[in-house]
């Protein structure tokens, strides 16, 4: 494995992602809606995929497989976010409104660094992808098939969760209510859970390649971000502001992240 070439691919990917996020920041500054960063965070991964596919030197069928997985998952997420965010450009999401309020006059400057950090995170999270596409082995390992199987479950699960929530929100009768049906009955954030499971799949897939164990960084970072930073905490705060009583009851009976059975009034399963 040529480590200098791996670094070169990562550097080209970083330059591309940072450039894209600079342009996105300029757009966000103009329309005063930082929520568009979510869309392009997801769409940066297909950019990395294309760059890596053409520059990496690994086994072609393996490259096609992992590139296909990466492209399908991130394009689906990007398109889903595009429909959710781009369709409401005049209305910034609550979490970004809160950040804008907290940062005050420094909001635009802080958002610039925030957007660039998203670009850096794109490249760091793509570590499993860089490792896999550099693998010269001509044999597809059982670990890679297992990773593919986990990925299929995660992809379908996240798609179902997103569609269930979108359908719930479209019904005017549900205004002010909490979506607690389908996968949302078992978890308050099933979409986040399956997104994380997607990255677990990439890690398992990468274990069949040299240095594959380093890929653990991706699901670890995603889990931390979802549970402690931009995922669950921000979403919970927003829901508690918009529907405090209903969401508090939902919190008391439903798992935050991992899909489990319902809890009773004492918090027991």
Describe the structure.
With 269 residues, the protein is mainly alpha-helical. The chain folds into two domains: 1-138, no CATH class; 141-269, no CATH class. It contains eleven helices and no strands. It has helices at 3-31, 36-55, 60-85, 94-103, 107-125, 127-133, 142-170, 190-206, 217-229, 232-242, 244-253. The model has no long low-confidence stretch (mean pLDDT 91).
Key attributes of the depicted protein:
269 residues; mainly alpha; 2 domains
Oligomeric assembly: single chain
Succession of helices and strands: HHHHHHHHHHH
Q: Averaged pLDDT, please?
A: 91
Counting helices, strands and paired strands, the structural category is mainly alpha
Distance between the termini: 49 Å
